[in-house]
Amino acid sequence: MADLIKQALTRKKRTRRGRVVQEPPNEKVVYAVKFAIAMLVCLSAVEIAHLAILRVWNSEVFSAITGLVGTVTGIFLGQKA
Predict the structure, then answer these.
(1) Given a cut of 70, is residue 81 above it in pLDDT?
(2) Is pLDDT of 52 > 70?
(3) Minimal CA–CA distance to 79: which of 13, 3, 1, 2?
């Protein structure tokens, strides 16, 4: 999984001579994305358990999931620019 995240966040630039140079992402960014994805999975499991046990939608957990999705998407879009 780490290689996929690192590969997705790697920037590719063309030099004046036409070569493609790859710039690897900062390790802190890779760790932040891993953590955010892990928390997204955990919060999704909490929401599913909450629905299964209490049969009620928890809006606080859903808002945390939505925030994490926005954060991960922003990191990927911002890193590719």
Answers:
(1) no
(2) yes
(3) 13
Whole-model pTM?
0.78
Number of domains observed in the structure of the chain: 1
Spatial separation of the C-alpha atoms in residues 35 and 76, rounded to whole Å: 14
- Residue 24, CB half-sphere, CA atoms under 13 Å: how many? 8
Rounded Cα distance between 75 and 69, Å, is 10
Helix residue spans in 1-81 (DSSP H): 2-9, 27-54, 59-80
Distance of CA 6 to the CA centre of its chain: 11
Q: Which domain holds residue 40?
A: 2-80
Burial-class residue 68 by CB neighbours within 10 Å (0-12, 13-18, 19+).
buried
| 69 CB-near residues (< 8 Å, 6+ apart) | 40
